[in-house]
Backbone:
Protein backbone atom coordinates (compact mmCIF):
# COMPACT_ATOMS: atom_id res chain seq x y z
CA UNK A 1 0.00 0.00 0.00
CA UNK A 2 1.56 3.25 -1.18
CA UNK A 3 0.18 5.27 1.75
CA UNK A 4 2.43 3.36 4.15
CA UNK A 5 5.50 4.27 2.15
CA UNK A 6 4.60 7.94 1.69
CA UNK A 7 3.64 8.65 5.29
CA UNK A 8 6.00 9.31 8.17
CA UNK A 9 5.83 6.07 10.16
CA UNK A 10 4.14 6.14 13.54
CA UNK A 11 3.99 2.77 15.26
CA UNK A 12 2.00 1.34 18.13
CA UNK A 13 2.50 -1.91 19.98
CA UNK A 14 -0.74 -3.94 20.13
CA UNK A 15 -1.83 -7.57 19.93
CA UNK A 16 1.74 -8.78 20.31
CA UNK A 17 3.40 -6.76 17.52
CA UNK A 18 4.01 -3.28 16.16
CA UNK A 19 1.55 -1.68 13.73
CA UNK A 20 2.06 1.35 11.52
CA UNK A 21 -0.75 3.81 12.18
CA UNK A 22 -2.36 5.59 9.24
CA UNK A 23 -5.43 7.80 9.09
CA UNK A 24 -6.88 6.97 5.70
CA UNK A 25 -10.28 8.03 4.44
CA UNK A 26 -11.51 4.50 5.27
CA UNK A 27 -10.47 5.09 8.89
CA UNK A 28 -12.22 8.46 8.90
CA UNK A 29 -15.44 6.90 7.63
CA UNK A 30 -15.22 4.13 10.25
CA UNK A 31 -14.79 6.74 12.97
CA UNK A 32 -17.81 8.58 11.61
CA UNK A 33 -19.92 5.42 11.73
CA UNK A 34 -18.82 4.58 15.28
CA UNK A 35 -19.25 8.03 16.77
CA UNK A 36 -22.01 9.54 14.66
CA UNK A 37 -19.93 12.62 13.93
CA UNK A 38 -18.10 13.80 10.83
CA UNK A 39 -14.60 12.44 11.31
CA UNK A 40 -13.09 15.28 9.26
CA UNK A 41 -14.02 17.51 12.21
CA UNK A 42 -12.73 15.23 15.01
CA UNK A 43 -10.59 17.01 17.58
CA UNK A 44 -7.98 14.63 18.99
CA UNK A 45 -6.52 17.32 21.23
CA UNK A 46 -9.50 16.98 23.56
CA UNK A 47 -11.32 13.79 22.58
CA UNK A 48 -14.16 12.07 24.34
CA UNK A 49 -13.72 8.44 25.41
CA UNK A 50 -16.10 7.43 22.61
CA UNK A 51 -13.98 9.16 19.96
CA UNK A 52 -10.63 7.97 21.33
CA UNK A 53 -11.77 4.33 21.41
CA UNK A 54 -13.22 4.60 17.91
CA UNK A 55 -10.03 6.13 16.49
CA UNK A 56 -7.83 3.45 18.07
CA UNK A 57 -10.09 0.66 16.85
CA UNK A 58 -10.38 2.02 13.29
CA UNK A 59 -6.65 2.70 12.99
CA UNK A 60 -5.61 -0.74 14.26
CA UNK A 61 -8.15 -2.48 12.03
CA UNK A 62 -6.86 -0.53 9.01
CA UNK A 63 -3.33 -1.62 9.93
CA UNK A 64 -4.49 -5.25 9.85
CA UNK A 65 -4.91 -6.04 13.53
CA UNK A 66 -7.69 -8.42 14.50
CA UNK A 67 -9.32 -6.46 17.32
CA UNK A 68 -12.80 -5.65 18.58
CA UNK A 69 -14.12 -2.27 19.67
CA UNK A 70 -14.15 -3.51 23.28
CA UNK A 71 -10.60 -4.78 22.83
CA UNK A 72 -9.50 -1.31 21.76
CA UNK A 73 -11.25 0.16 24.80
CA UNK A 74 -9.50 -2.40 26.98
CA UNK A 75 -6.12 -1.10 25.77
CA UNK A 76 -7.01 2.42 26.92
CA UNK A 77 -6.63 1.77 30.63
CA UNK A 78 -4.88 4.23 32.96
CA UNK A 79 -1.14 4.09 32.52
CA UNK A 80 -1.35 3.23 28.83
CA UNK A 81 -3.97 5.68 27.55
CA UNK A 82 -1.68 8.71 27.48
CA UNK A 83 1.02 7.09 25.33
CA UNK A 84 -1.58 5.54 22.98
CA UNK A 85 -3.23 8.92 22.59
CA UNK A 86 0.13 10.55 21.84
CA UNK A 87 0.74 7.93 19.12
CA UNK A 88 -2.70 8.54 17.63
CA UNK A 89 -2.10 12.31 17.56
CA UNK A 90 1.28 11.76 15.87
CA UNK A 91 -0.35 9.47 13.30
CA UNK A 92 -3.10 12.03 12.74
CA UNK A 93 -0.54 14.79 12.10
CA UNK A 94 1.46 12.56 9.75
CA UNK A 95 -1.65 11.73 7.71
CA UNK A 96 -3.11 15.23 7.47
CA UNK A 97 -1.93 18.08 5.22
CA UNK A 98 0.51 20.53 6.75
CA UNK A 99 -1.20 23.66 8.05
CA UNK A 100 -1.07 26.60 5.66
CA UNK A 101 2.05 28.74 6.09
CA UNK A 102 0.00 31.90 6.36
CA UNK A 103 -2.89 30.96 8.57
CA UNK A 104 -6.06 32.77 7.64
CA UNK A 105 -7.59 34.68 10.54
CA UNK A 106 -10.38 32.73 12.14
CA UNK A 107 -13.64 34.54 11.56
CA UNK A 108 -17.29 33.73 11.26
CA UNK A 109 -16.98 33.84 7.49
CA UNK A 110 -14.03 31.39 7.40
CA UNK A 111 -14.72 28.29 5.31
CA UNK A 112 -15.40 25.18 7.42
CA UNK A 113 -13.28 22.09 6.66
CA UNK A 114 -14.54 19.70 3.99
CA UNK A 115 -17.07 17.10 5.05
CA UNK A 116 -16.35 13.46 4.17
CA UNK A 117 -18.96 13.70 1.40
CA UNK A 118 -17.34 16.79 -0.11
CA UNK A 119 -13.88 15.18 0.07
CA UNK A 120 -15.21 12.09 -1.71
CA UNK A 121 -16.87 14.21 -4.39
CA UNK A 122 -13.64 16.12 -5.00
CA UNK A 123 -11.69 12.88 -5.27
CA UNK A 124 -14.19 11.26 -7.63
CA UNK A 125 -15.05 14.19 -9.88
CA UNK A 126 -11.98 16.43 -9.89
CA UNK A 127 -9.25 13.85 -9.45
CA UNK A 128 -10.97 10.89 -11.13
CA UNK A 129 -10.04 8.52 -8.31
CA UNK A 130 -11.87 5.25 -7.75
CA UNK A 131 -13.62 4.67 -4.42
CA UNK A 132 -10.96 2.17 -3.38
CA UNK A 133 -8.11 4.53 -4.29
CA UNK A 134 -9.72 7.30 -2.24
CA UNK A 135 -10.42 5.03 0.74
CA UNK A 136 -6.78 3.88 0.86
CA UNK A 137 -5.36 7.41 0.73
CA UNK A 138 -4.57 9.72 3.60
CA UNK A 139 -5.97 13.28 3.45
CA UNK A 140 -2.35 14.42 3.08
CA UNK A 141 -1.98 12.44 -0.15
CA UNK A 142 -5.30 13.75 -1.46
CA UNK A 143 -4.19 17.30 -0.66
CA UNK A 144 -0.93 16.77 -2.58
CA UNK A 145 -2.92 15.59 -5.62
CA UNK A 146 -5.29 18.55 -5.33
CA UNK A 147 -2.36 20.96 -5.16
CA UNK A 148 -0.84 19.40 -8.27
CA UNK A 149 -4.15 19.75 -10.08
CA UNK A 150 -4.46 23.38 -8.96
CA UNK A 151 -0.96 24.14 -10.26
CA UNK A 152 -1.83 22.55 -13.59
CA UNK A 153 -5.03 24.64 -13.79
CA UNK A 154 -3.09 27.80 -13.00
CA UNK A 155 -0.65 27.26 -15.86
CA UNK A 156 -3.54 26.69 -18.28
CA UNK A 157 -5.24 29.84 -17.00
CA UNK A 158 -1.97 31.75 -17.28
CA UNK A 159 -1.63 30.83 -20.94
CA UNK A 160 -5.13 32.13 -21.61
CA UNK A 161 -4.39 35.16 -19.44
CA UNK A 162 -1.28 36.00 -21.48
CA UNK A 163 -3.33 35.80 -24.67
CA UNK A 164 -6.12 37.98 -23.23
CA UNK A 165 -3.70 40.57 -21.80
CA UNK A 166 -1.77 40.77 -25.08
CA UNK A 167 -4.97 41.24 -27.06
CA UNK A 168 -6.35 43.90 -24.71
CA UNK A 169 -3.06 45.78 -24.27
CA UNK A 170 -2.54 46.09 -28.03
CA UNK A 171 -6.12 46.79 -29.06
CA UNK A 172 -7.26 50.12 -30.56
CA UNK A 173 -8.62 51.31 -27.25
CA UNK A 174 -5.91 49.81 -25.09
CA UNK A 175 -6.00 50.79 -21.40
CA UNK A 176 -3.45 53.40 -20.31
CA UNK A 177 -2.19 51.02 -17.65
CA UNK A 178 -1.59 47.62 -19.29
CA UNK A 179 -3.54 44.73 -17.81
CA UNK A 180 -1.59 41.77 -16.48
CA UNK A 181 -2.27 38.14 -17.40
CA UNK A 182 -2.87 37.47 -13.71
CA UNK A 183 -6.02 39.58 -13.75
CA UNK A 184 -7.62 37.09 -16.19
CA UNK A 185 -6.90 34.03 -14.04
CA UNK A 186 -9.63 32.36 -12.00
CA UNK A 187 -7.10 30.79 -9.62
CA UNK A 188 -4.20 33.25 -9.53
CA UNK A 189 -1.01 32.49 -7.62
CA UNK A 190 -0.61 34.35 -4.34
CA UNK A 191 1.18 37.68 -4.79
CA UNK A 192 4.33 36.44 -3.08
CA UNK A 193 4.90 33.39 -5.27
CA UNK A 194 4.26 34.45 -8.85
CA UNK A 195 6.06 32.35 -11.43
CA UNK A 196 8.47 33.88 -13.91
CA UNK A 197 7.26 33.50 -17.48
CA UNK A 198 7.93 35.23 -20.82
CA UNK A 199 5.59 38.18 -20.28
CA UNK A 200 7.18 38.89 -16.90
CA UNK A 201 10.61 39.14 -18.48
CA UNK A 202 9.33 41.37 -21.29
CA UNK A 203 7.65 43.73 -18.83
CA UNK A 204 10.82 43.90 -16.71
CA UNK A 205 12.94 44.65 -19.77
CA UNK A 206 10.41 47.27 -20.93
CA UNK A 207 10.82 49.13 -17.64
CA UNK A 208 14.59 49.49 -18.10
CA UNK A 209 15.31 52.98 -19.47
CA UNK A 210 16.69 52.81 -22.96
CA UNK A 211 20.25 53.90 -23.42
CA UNK A 212 20.63 57.20 -25.18
CA UNK A 213 22.30 56.96 -28.43
CA UNK A 214 25.82 58.12 -28.24
CA UNK A 215 26.23 61.45 -29.92
CA UNK B 1 -11.72 -9.91 33.54
CA UNK B 2 -11.17 -9.44 37.26
CA UNK B 3 -12.00 -5.79 38.01
CA UNK B 4 -10.84 -4.12 41.17
CA UNK B 5 -13.73 -2.25 42.71
CA UNK B 6 -14.22 0.37 45.36
CA UNK B 7 -17.30 0.37 47.54
CA UNK B 8 -19.66 3.32 47.78
CA UNK B 9 -22.07 3.21 50.69
CA UNK B 10 -25.10 5.50 50.61
CA UNK B 11 -28.13 5.15 52.86
CA UNK B 12 -26.81 1.79 54.08
CA UNK B 13 -26.78 0.46 50.56
CA UNK B 14 -23.52 -0.63 48.95
CA UNK B 15 -22.55 -0.06 45.33
CA UNK B 16 -19.46 -1.41 43.62
CA UNK B 17 -17.58 1.11 41.46
CA UNK B 18 -14.92 0.28 38.87
CA UNK B 19 -13.09 2.23 36.20
CA UNK B 20 -13.41 0.82 32.72
CA UNK B 21 -12.73 2.75 29.52
CA UNK B 22 -15.39 0.88 27.56
CA UNK B 23 -18.09 1.71 30.08
CA UNK B 24 -17.04 5.37 30.01
CA UNK B 25 -17.17 5.41 26.21
CA UNK B 26 -20.62 3.84 26.26
CA UNK B 27 -21.85 6.16 29.01
CA UNK B 28 -20.85 9.34 27.13
CA UNK B 29 -23.76 9.31 24.67
CA UNK B 30 -26.14 8.54 27.59
CA UNK B 31 -24.71 11.32 29.75
CA UNK B 32 -24.38 13.69 26.79
CA UNK B 33 -20.98 15.06 27.80
CA UNK B 34 -17.25 14.41 27.53
CA UNK B 35 -16.39 12.16 30.50
CA UNK B 36 -12.74 11.68 29.51
CA UNK B 37 -12.18 15.42 29.76
CA UNK B 38 -13.70 15.29 33.24
CA UNK B 39 -11.25 12.60 34.31
CA UNK B 40 -8.36 14.72 33.09
CA UNK B 41 -9.49 17.79 34.99
CA UNK B 42 -11.38 16.72 38.10
CA UNK B 43 -11.14 20.25 39.52
CA UNK B 44 -13.48 21.61 36.85
CA UNK B 45 -15.97 18.75 36.73
CA UNK B 46 -19.59 19.62 35.97
CA UNK B 47 -22.64 18.04 37.57
CA UNK B 48 -23.45 16.20 34.34
CA UNK B 49 -19.92 14.81 34.16
CA UNK B 50 -19.93 13.67 37.81
CA UNK B 51 -23.27 11.93 37.31
CA UNK B 52 -21.98 10.36 34.07
CA UNK B 53 -18.79 9.10 35.71
CA UNK B 54 -20.75 7.59 38.61
CA UNK B 55 -23.11 5.90 36.14
CA UNK B 56 -20.16 4.57 34.09
CA UNK B 57 -18.46 3.25 37.24
CA UNK B 58 -21.65 1.57 38.47
CA UNK B 59 -22.52 -0.27 35.26
CA UNK B 60 -19.22 -2.21 35.17
CA UNK B 61 -20.45 -4.50 37.94
CA UNK B 62 -24.08 -3.39 38.12
CA UNK B 63 -26.50 -4.16 40.92
CA UNK B 64 -29.70 -5.90 39.95
CA UNK B 65 -31.56 -4.18 38.33
CA UNK B 66 -28.94 -2.09 36.52
CA UNK B 67 -29.15 1.59 37.45
CA UNK B 68 -30.24 4.32 35.07
CA UNK B 69 -28.47 7.64 34.66
CA UNK B 70 -31.19 9.36 36.67
CA UNK B 71 -30.85 6.83 39.50
CA UNK B 72 -27.10 7.44 39.55
CA UNK B 73 -27.83 11.16 39.76
CA UNK B 74 -30.21 10.58 42.69
CA UNK B 75 -27.28 9.21 44.71
CA UNK B 76 -25.38 12.52 44.38
CA UNK B 77 -26.67 14.89 47.04
CA UNK B 78 -25.06 17.68 49.01
CA UNK B 79 -24.36 15.27 51.86
CA UNK B 80 -23.00 12.48 49.62
CA UNK B 81 -21.08 14.38 46.94
CA UNK B 82 -17.77 14.05 48.78
CA UNK B 83 -18.24 10.33 49.43
CA UNK B 84 -19.12 9.76 45.77
CA UNK B 85 -16.11 11.72 44.52
CA UNK B 86 -13.73 9.86 46.85
CA UNK B 87 -15.16 6.48 45.84
CA UNK B 88 -14.74 7.36 42.15
CA UNK B 89 -11.16 8.49 42.75
CA UNK B 90 -10.46 5.21 44.59
CA UNK B 91 -11.89 3.18 41.70
CA UNK B 92 -9.64 5.08 39.31
CA UNK B 93 -6.61 4.51 41.54
CA UNK B 94 -7.34 0.78 41.81
CA UNK B 95 -7.41 0.45 38.04
CA UNK B 96 -3.89 1.85 37.68
CA UNK B 97 -1.30 -0.77 36.84
CA UNK B 98 0.83 -1.80 39.77
CA UNK B 99 4.30 -0.27 39.60
CA UNK B 100 7.01 -2.70 38.59
CA UNK B 101 9.02 -3.90 41.54
CA UNK B 102 12.39 -2.16 41.73
CA UNK B 103 15.37 -4.27 40.73
CA UNK B 104 17.30 -5.89 43.51
CA UNK B 105 20.05 -3.77 44.93
CA UNK B 106 23.47 -4.85 43.71
CA UNK B 107 25.36 -6.87 46.19
CA UNK B 108 28.18 -5.13 47.95
CA UNK B 109 31.52 -6.23 46.58
CA UNK B 110 33.34 -8.66 48.77
CA UNK B 111 35.87 -7.03 50.97
Residues:
Amino acid sequence: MIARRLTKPVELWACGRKWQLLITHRVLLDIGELTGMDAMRVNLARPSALVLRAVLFAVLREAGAVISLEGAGGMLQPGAAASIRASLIAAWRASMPDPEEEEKPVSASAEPPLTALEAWATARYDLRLSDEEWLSMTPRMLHALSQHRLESMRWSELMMGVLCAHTVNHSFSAPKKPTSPRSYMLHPWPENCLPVYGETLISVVADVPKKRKAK
Amino acid sequence: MNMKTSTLTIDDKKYLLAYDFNSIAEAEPVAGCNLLAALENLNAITAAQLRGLLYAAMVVTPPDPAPTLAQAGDLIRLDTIETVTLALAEAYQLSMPEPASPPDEPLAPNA
In short: Chain A touches chain B through 17 residues (CB under 8 Å). Residues 139-169 of chain A form the longest helix (31 residues).
